[in-house]
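Collaborator request, handled under Task 6.
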Amino acid sequence: MSDVAAHDAPRRQRNPRGQGHRLRDEILAGATTILEHSGDEHAVTLRAVARRIGITAPSITTHFPDPAAIIDAVVAEQLGGLAERLRSAAHSTADPVDALQAAWAAYLDFGRANPAHYRVIFERRFLTVWDDQQRPMTETAPLFDATTEMMIGLLQTCIDTATSTSADAFADSVAIWYYTHGLVALPATITSFAWPDAHTHLATGITNLAHLTPPARTRTPKRRPPNPARR
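Structure tokens returned to the collaborator:
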């Protein structure tokens, strides 16, 4: 028996009238647990989710017509949590460079602290479900686009304030994304290697990939030595 199946819930009590949203939340929580435990989107079936939270499979179709719609909502929920962290970090400072660095540091922290959630968002292998059926990810896609635009916008602000010499905010933001994903994924995959401090490498990588300009140095006026003749 699989770990997921071994944790089937007892029969669930019906929600009071007007609280159907609670069932939707429970469906997403159950599906998220299945994804995290199995690492396989094909394990998210209506029956598996129903068993997980103690309801009948037809009860799920009130909220989600099929497993693909459930996974779309699960990914959107996890991505929404990440996006809020990125936004909060970026808004924690008025300095454009600090905002850029803080947002990507928050991305790194999220991935390292929440490896299962990170995998649900970025390391999923079920995109063929949408490709084969030519279906849009109606919940995830708009949120993904908005989050990507926000991160690109942080670099664009650096360009606009002459703190970056980047000629392409999109391409260089994608390069930073490649780099930061590696800092998240590689240490989680190859645990026997003595990886150096990720945050130090992230700051250096962003400085280089974003073409950040060196901070202006405040020059302290040199004091003239006293003139002995005037003593």
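The cover message to the collaborator said: "Residues 1-6, 216-221 have pLDDT under 50 and may be disordered. Residues 67-90 form the longest helix (24 residues). Please let us know whether this matches your experimental observations."
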